[in-house]
Amino acid sequence: MAKVTAGITTSHVPLLGRIVDTKQTQTEEWSPVFSGYEFTKKWIAEEKPDVVILVYNDHASAFDMKLIPTFAIGCAEEFPPADEGFGARPVPNVIGHPDLAWHIVQSVIEQDFDLTIVNEMAVDHGLTVPLSMCFGQPDAWPCKVIPVMVNTVVYPAPSGRRCLALGKALRKAVESFDENLNVQVWGTGGMSHQLIGERAGIINREWDTRFLDKFEKDYEELAQIPQSEYIRETGTEGSETVMWLIMRGALGENAREIHRHYHIPVSNTALGHLVYTCD
What we know:
The protein is of the alpha/beta class. It has one domain: Protocatechuate 4,5-dioxygenase, Chain B (3-Layer(aba) Sandwich), CATH 3.40.830.10. The protein has helices at about 15-20, 30-35, 40-45, 100-110, 125-135, 160-175, 205-215, 220, 225-235, 245-250, and strands at about 5-10, 50-55, 70-75, 80, 95, 115-120, 145-150, 180-190, 255-265, 270-275.
């Protein structure tokens, strides 16, 4: 049977993709950011996941005001990198796992989650930057990826409770798939930041640190945080961190932290990164 074995959380700051693409990761300015992912690169090379379920939010690349799903899943064979205004990133296409993706759809519907099924979708920095941070610059991504898109851009956005519950449903879905697969679940986005308005550039290190500290054992408490608190304390884009709870729900009660990285500032945002394993 397939099994969820581990999870990763990471910010997906678009500038980091540019730094990777232009080979500036070892410069004096950027090496403190990227050094926090060296553990992850070595660890994941040993873990060799077959599939990553990557939870991210689309930034008006695949979806716009004409269509705004709260939760969507990519069921296609392949997903190209999106052109976000400056041309597509020079990264490999993402190869999907349609059999597992469709199984997840069926399973979570039976658990009262209705995912929007997407069979053609370009994926933006929300998905490709985490892959670059953890896998570097390979000719092809070393595993298959199932994109799970969460709306955190247009309100109303899903609650932490709903995201945690979806993570639990994903775990149940994976474990009922009749193929021996090593599956990881990644939650991306955050941490505290706001891109426009009077509070642009807000970074709340105290709030971010408390969230990181509670993530292992007190995740049910974190799931009760309302969207209004995310926005008030961490900025409008800081509310992306709610997607981390999908990863945490998928890992179950016995998950444990094996690596943490927090860096400020990256551009005008706070960067958070965790690596978790689970039984």
